Structures are given as structure tokens and as C-alpha cells.
Amino acid sequence: MKTPTVDPTQELAAFLRTRRERLDPHDVGLPPPRRSRRTPGLRREEVAELAGVSVDYVVRLEQARGLRPSAAVAEALARALRLAPDERAYLFDLARQRPRGTDRPATAAAPPLARLVADLGPLPAMVMNHRFDILAWNEAMTGLLLDFGTLPPPRRNAMWLCLMHPEIRECYVDRERVVREGVAHLRAAWAAHPDDQALSDLITEFRTRDDEFARLWGARDVKVNGRGRKMMRHPDVGALAVHFEVLMPLQDTDQRVMICRAADEESRAALDRLAAR
């Protein structure tokens, strides 16, 4: 199973179908159908009416017949399908209507960011790119997770660790949610970086080797997760919870600085014990 770099026409067709099929007429203010429907979701005719386009246009989009929606039509479709902000951005990426940078994907942390991450200790922090490749980290992050320097560079990837590394697989209490959010982030990155063969190869590996990833990838959920809370089981200090925040530097927009903070007093004490070690 190979994941190609993004075919925008095919992916746009599949994405529009899945978003249409998840909606109920009641969700968009339409009267309930007088007869039960054989297929779930809205009809194409209803989407066309809500978006102000022809039914034939919606049919051709969903059949991947080479259409490229304008920004105005993409916005109308996003409103008609009640897309969340991250889904709307994904639609604009597939329609090639969102401005994008020309920089190559980052493969090394910018030196100022690497120094910043070191200075952030004792807060665990690291630098990643859009693929979840880990480019730099501090000692506190090493204590919280593992020493990434002991891994070969291709395995310094947060998603690979969550899926494949035996210790990291077991450290997240709510692992299913962590994986689901990671998959949704990677799908957004896949559309935003359509020519990134390394990312496509990474997704192929995950889909081939992990049934859970393959199932979640097929759901076409899209979400860029910039903050949240993770419950963890640490082999040395036990259970702890962290809040994480992901920041994007203006001058290095393909790099993300992730910073973790204790979510409660017990977790703060656990992180202090790790720092003391």
C-alpha cells in the first residue's frame, strides 16, 4: 500500500463526499425527509442549493472530473458542509486557494530555536516540523519521554514513537485519542505540503504497519492540534498530566516549538523529581 503525494482532485472528491454524508438535513435547517433515505447524509442537490452552485458542479467535483473551485466557491462549500476551521483550511489547500510558502520542509532546527528549547528547561520542550520529525529537544523532554539521540534520525518522529516504540506506546493513558489527533494533524499537513514525498512515505509506513492508523486515516478527520492535555504513565515517577502548547515562529514557519507544563500539583512534583535526576 503506497500513499502518493496528494492528488488534489481525487482527495477533494473523497473529502467532499465524506463531509456531505456525515450531515443530517436537520443539521443545516432543512425539513426532515418524508421517506427514509437509502444513503446517509445530505443529497448532492441539497449541497448544491446550500452552496449556490449547480447540481452538476457538485457531481463533477465528487467524481474528480478536473474542477478546481475558486476561493468563493470553496468558501460556499465550506459553509454548506458546516466545516470546522481546520477542515475549511484543508478544503482550501486541496483547491489550491490558500497561499503557501516556498521553503523546503525543515530537516534541522534553526539554531535560535534549538537554543530557546535548551533555555526553556526545566520545562520539557522540543522542536518539530510538520511531519512530527523531532529536530531538537532539551534534557527535561529526554527525562519525560526518552533520549531521542539514541534513535536513528528516521525514527526521531513523534508519531512513529507513539505507534511503534514499545515504551512510548504504553506511556499515554488515552493513547487512542493521542493517535486520533496525530492522524488528523498529519492529514492537514499532507494537504498543505502536497509534494512532500518523505511525508507520503511516512504515512504509507503507518498505514501499512498499524491497523488503527489506517482506520483513522480513512475517516478523513482534519484538525491541527496546537494545545491540549496528555495523561502519562512514567516508569520512574508514575502517573502525571501535562498541558502542552505548540508555537510557530514567524521566521521558521515549518518548525513548531512544543512546550509542556505540569497540569496539577502532583504532576509538578513528578516533573521536579525527574529534573532532580
Topology:
Elements: H1 8-21, H2 44-51, H3 55-62, H4 71-80, H5 85-94, H6 111-119, E1 125-129, E2 134-137, H7 139-144, H8 158-164, H9 166-171, H10 175-192, H11 197-209, H12 211-218, E3 227-234, E4 238-247, E5 255-262, H13 265-276
Helix pairs in contact: 2-3, 2-4, 4-5, 5-10, 10-12, 11-12
Model description:
- By secondary structure, the protein is α+β, with helices and mostly antiparallel strands.
- The chain folds into 2 domains: 8-94, lambda repressor-like DNA-binding domains (434 Repressor (Amino-terminal Domain), Orthogonal Bundle); 111-276, Beta-Lactamase (2-Layer Sandwich), CATH 3.30.450.180.
- 47% of the residues lie in helices and 13% in strands.
- The protein has helices spanning 8-21, 44-51, 55-62, 71-80, 85-94, 111-119, 139-144, 158-164, 166-171, 175-192, 197-209, 211-218, 265-276; strands at 125-129, 134-137, 227-234, 238-247, 255-262.
- The protein has a 5-stranded antiparallel β-sheet.
- The chain is elongated and about 65 Å long.
- Residues 20-43 are annotated as: Disordered.
- This is Helix-turn-helix domain-containing protein.
- Residues 41-88 form the HTH cro/C1-type domain.
- GO terms for molecular function: DNA binding.
Q: What brief labels describe this structure?
A:
277 residues, alpha+beta, 434 Repressor (Amino-terminal Domain), Beta-Lactamase, 2 domains, 5-stranded antiparallel β-sheet, 5 strands
